[in-house]
């Protein structure tokens, strides 16, 4: 079933064409990642499909039974309303019941009658499984203060609330939902990103998304679309397959351009020799000439960067931290931290938000003072600091002027130099864009220019605090290639696992309460170790503490006989289901007892969720076994 079809659609932004005459289909079950440079029309295409923008030419068709849900980079809220009211804005009986129930819990109300009525309504709607899903979404996205007004939230909090809103919304919809997501992993920590991966895979949604997180892309999507030079290219398979197929496409395109150029030279000679009066046949050949000229003058952009930079000299002493302590009131950031940096170090910094990662970077640069201990920085160290603060613009100017104010040239190891214009071109600012005013740049383009400006200063100790946010995949590829050959020290805070794995040798893990662990490996190595620890903890738990997860039942072979073992399991399932239904009915009656206190009602509510899950598992297995009975 086709959810969406687009036939020869075109869209321009002012005089700049974004895409021209592109055609595509999105079918049920597709999971597609959309890749393009910032400013190429990714977000515009998503908005068009969601009905929030229109095409200039062509037609868009959305199946009448399909609901399109859009998660935007800049979410829109009812600012004066609470987080709770924004999340459950949907006019749906289950949404109304959930809002009422969550509101009572958030307020810590002692109104047992109201709570009992809310629970009874959820039970009446058969929404316990959905209630468990809502709690999972809110918990995993660290959304707890539901009565807080949305207008008081930080940018990261707003993104997480918007994500919760759209994930909960699609649960109220019909089964045919196209989920469109624009950079869903921005402002999520790695644990949240990993949870979202699993969630999207379990839900079996039809998905179209823009993301710069390549591990997330690989785990969730099985098809990649690329918008490039106004055209749409589609690639089946994972990110590695996309890179290989794109390289083959570029190689083929280059060969075709070379062929067109040879033909163009011959046709140009013919054009010059022809008299002004043309025959019909001549005019046809002349029209063909202009098509050949267009092909011959194509440019192919290759984002691979190989740059042997001449870095500022780095002496033997780089940075030493001895018994460093730092706290903010009761919050401990560092507790006796010791470390001596060596030449060429590549360190990633990870830890929960608020653990002190950014404070540590500030202290290293002398922008924040330690409470005690010593931080000694070598005389030859030149820091390059990419922070989350954004581009420092004192006045509006053109891109090329901004970079030339830093330096006219960039020195290379062989003694040659790159001009400011050449360096800009290297980082995907072509000459025709270099005279654009800074105020006209998109958010992603400003981030790219900020990064470029720091690198152009030629530092020998780079500090990158979340450099991948708002950067597109082509820019990330350029940056990674540049940093792979960077000879100086590198300190990176990032939630981008692919970026970290490619560039760092070991990690500083901020574990909280001032503890910083030096882990000898990249991020993937670290997660393998952490998962092994989590598995050990789960195994060590008491049986009653472990909530059984639903088992994925394999389809039964057509000719399988109903064995004695199957019959015994079948009979036991019927007994178990009857027992659970009885317990469910008993708990429902207990919840109506107004003498119960809040904690007792909460315990009964939690047990009801577990019963709903177990009933679903057993019913699925009962149905599976019942197929074998003739």
In short:
Among the domains are: 76-172, no CATH class; 243-296; 319-532, Rossmann fold (3-Layer(aba) Sandwich); 564-626. The chain is globular.
Radius of gyration: 30 Å
Second-tier CATH architecture of the domain at 319-532: 3-Layer(aba) Sandwich
Mean pLDDT: 80
Low-confidence spans: 545-560
Arrangement of strands in the largest sheet = 5-6-7-3-8-9
Please describe the biggest sheet, giving its number of strands, its sense, and whether it closes into a barrel: 6 strands, mixed
Distance between the termini: 33 Å
At the first level of CATH, what is the class of the domain at 319-532? Alpha Beta
- CATH homologous superfamily label of the domain at 319-532: P-loop containing nucleotide triphosphate hydrolases
> What is the helix tally?
19
Helix content: 40-55%
Any idea of the CATH topology of the domain at 319-532? Rossmann fold
Give the class from helix and strand content and strand pairing: alpha/beta
Strand content: 15-25%
Give the overall shape, derived from the CA principal axes.
globular
Number of beta-strand segments? 20
What's the multimeric state?
single chain
């Amino acid at each position: 079933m086709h959810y969406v079809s687009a036939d020869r659609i075109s869209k321009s932004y002012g005089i700049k064409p974004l895409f021209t005459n592109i055609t595509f289909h999105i079918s049920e079950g597709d999971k597609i990642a959309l890749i393009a440079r910032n400013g190429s029309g990714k977000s515009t295409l998503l908005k068009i499909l969601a009905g929030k923008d229109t095409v200039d030419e062509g037609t868009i068709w959305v199946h009448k039974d399909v609901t399109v849900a859009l998660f935007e980079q800049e979410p829109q809220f009812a600012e004066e309303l609470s987080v709770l009211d924004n999340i459950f804005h949907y006019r749906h009986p289950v949404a109304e019941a959930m809002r009422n129930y969550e509101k009572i819990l958030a307020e810590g109300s002692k109104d047992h009658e109201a709570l009992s009525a809310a629970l009874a309504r959820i039970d009446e709607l058969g929404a316990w499984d959905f209630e468990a899903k809502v709690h999972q979404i809110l918990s995993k996205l660290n959304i707890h203060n539901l009565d807080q007004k949305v207008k008081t939230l930080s940018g990261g909090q707003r993104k997480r609330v918007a994500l919760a809103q759209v994930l909960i919304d699609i649960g109220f919809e019909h089964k045919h939902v196209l989920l469109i997501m624009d950079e869903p992993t921005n402002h999520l920590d790695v644990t949240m990103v990993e949870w979202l991966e699993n969630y999207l895979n379990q839900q079996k949604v039809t998905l179209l998304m823009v993301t710069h997180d390549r591990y997330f892309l690989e785990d969730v999507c099985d098809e990649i679309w690329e918008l490039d030079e106004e055209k749409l290219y589609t690639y089946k398979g994972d990110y590695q397959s996309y890179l290989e197929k794109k390289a083959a496409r570029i190689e083929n395109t280059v060969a075709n351009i070379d062929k067109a150029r040879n033909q163009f030279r011959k046709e140009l000679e013919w054009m010059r020799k022809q008299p002004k009066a043309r025959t019909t046949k001549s005019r046809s050949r002349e029209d063909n000439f202009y098509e050949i000229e267009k092909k011959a003058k194509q440019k192919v952009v290759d984002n691979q960067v190989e740059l042997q930079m001449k870095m500022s000299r780095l002496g033997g002493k780089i940075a030493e931290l001895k018994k460093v302590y730092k706290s903010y009131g009761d919050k401990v950031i560092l507790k006796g931290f010791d470390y001596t940096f060596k030449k060429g170090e590549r360190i990633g910094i990870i830890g929960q938000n608020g653990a002190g990662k950014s404070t540590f970077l500030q202290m290293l640069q002398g922008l924040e003072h330690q409470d005690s201990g010593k931080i000694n920085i070598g005389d030859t160290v030149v820091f390059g600091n990419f922070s989350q603060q954004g581009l420092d613009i004192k006045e509006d100017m053109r891109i090329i002027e901004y970079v030339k104010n830093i330096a006219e040239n960039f020195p290379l190891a062989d003694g040659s130099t790159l001009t400011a214009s050449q360096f800009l071109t290297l980082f995907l600012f072509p000459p025709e864009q270099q005279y654009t005013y800074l105020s006209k740049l998109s958010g992603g383009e400003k981030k790219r220019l900020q990064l470029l400006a720091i690198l152009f200063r030629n530092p020998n100790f780079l500090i990158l605090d979340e450099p991948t946010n708002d950067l597109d995949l082509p820019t990330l590829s350029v940056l990674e290639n540049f940093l792979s050959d960077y000879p100086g020290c590198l300190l990176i805070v990032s939630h981008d696992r692919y970026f970290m794995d490619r560039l760092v040798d070991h990690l500083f893990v901020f574990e909280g309460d001032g503890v910083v662990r030096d882990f000898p490996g990249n991020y993937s190595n670290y997660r393998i170790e952490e998962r092994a620890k989590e598995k050990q903890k789960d195994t060590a738990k008491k049986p009653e503490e472990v909530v059984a997860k639903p088992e994925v039942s394999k389809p039964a072979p057509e000719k399988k006989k109903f064995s004695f073992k199957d019959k015994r399991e079948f009979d036991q399932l019927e007994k178990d289901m009857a027992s659970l239904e009885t317990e469910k009915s008993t708990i429902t009656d207990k919840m109506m007892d107004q003498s119960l206190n809040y904690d007792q009602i909460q315990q009964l509510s939690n047990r009801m969720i577990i019963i709903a899950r177990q009933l679903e598992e057993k019913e699925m297995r009962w149905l599976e076994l019942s197929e074998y009975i003739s």
